[in-house]
Specification:
The complex is a heterodimer of chains A (107) and B (122). Chain A has 107 residues and is mainly beta. Chain A is 0% helix and 50% strand. In chain A, the strands form 2 sheets. In chain A, strands 2, 4, 5, 6, 9, 10 and 11 form a 7-stranded mixed β-sheet that branches. The mean pLDDT of chain A is 97. Chain B is an all-beta fold and 122 residues long. Chain B is built from no helices and 11 strands. Chain B has strands at 3-7, 10-12, 18-25, 33-39, 45-51, 58-60, 68-73, 78-83, 92-102, 105-112, 116-120. The chains are: A mainly beta (107), B mainly beta (122). Chains A and B meet through strand 4, strand 5 and strand 10 of A and strand 5 and strand 10 of B.
């Protein structure tokens, strides 16, 4: 099974900051990676697919990069509505696995 | 507008059964794979099961194999999760979500329902 290690598990940031979240796969997954945002009490929302493709309607301050085993979600100029928990998911093979999540809190 | 609406959650005793339903609208259901993802209270997301458009391919996380069954009814635009031999660790919000595959490329979980809570407790 492919394990996804996400870091950090939590972070504090200020509005306007640049935030970087990393997911590391235990083996190569090409670009079979998705990033989600989840706010309390809500279903997850897809932000990025195929590691770097921005979902329609998602602000351009969100970007994804990486291939193989190392992936990054970057939020440029963090906005108040971006405070949430972020998850990566690999879909290279079954079982699908999510990263442990990164909670982005207000500093 | 794409809509996914889960139902069937509730309180069940350990060893009991529940059947979750997910009714969908706003897209061509019989062209989509469907999946279930769960989230235990205060915890992260866990993929549970997927089913292909004609129901011939089903995949499960190891922890539910032999206990849970995913199925679909295209006439009712619905996907189901039959959960048997429930355990306390199955307590979670269960979400259904869409997967669209075309020409060997799959788009995972672009649409989600609001979730239904399953509590396994005596």
């Amino acid at each position: 099974d492919i394990q996804m290690t996400q870091s950090p598990s939590a972070m504090s940031a200020s509005v306007g900051d640049r935030v970087t979240i990393t997911c590391r796969a235990s083996q190569g997954i090409s670009n079979f990676l998705v990033w989600f945002q989840q706010k309390p009490g809500k279903a997850p929302k897809r932000l990025i697919y195929a590691a770097s493709s921005l979902e329609s309607g998602v602000p351009s301050r969100f970007s994804g990069s990486g291939s193989g085993t190392e992936f990054t979600l970057t939020i440029n100029s963090l906005q108040p509505e971006d405070f949430a928990t972020y998850y990566c998911l690999h879909h290279k093979s079954y079982p699908l696995t999510f990263g442990g999540g990164t909670k982005v809190e207000i500093k | 507008e794409v809509q996914l609406v889960e139902s069937g959650g509730g309180l069940v005793q350990p060893g009991g059964s529940l059947r979750l339903s997910c009714a969908v609208s706003g897209f061509t259901f019989n062209s989509y794979w469907m999946g279930w993802v769960r989230q235990a209270p205060g915890e992260g997301l866990e993929w549970v099961a997927n089913i292909n458009p004609d129901g011939s391919q089903k995949y499960y996380v190891d922890s539910v194999k032999g206990r849970f069954t995913i199925s679909r009814d295209d006439a009712k635009n619905s996907v189901y999760l039959q959960m048997n031999s429930l355990r306390a660790e199955d307590t979670a919000i269960y979400y259904c979500a869409t997967i669209y595959c075309s020409n060997g490329v799959c788009q995972f979980f672009n649409y989600w329902g609001q979730g239904t809570l399953v509590t396994v407790s005596s």
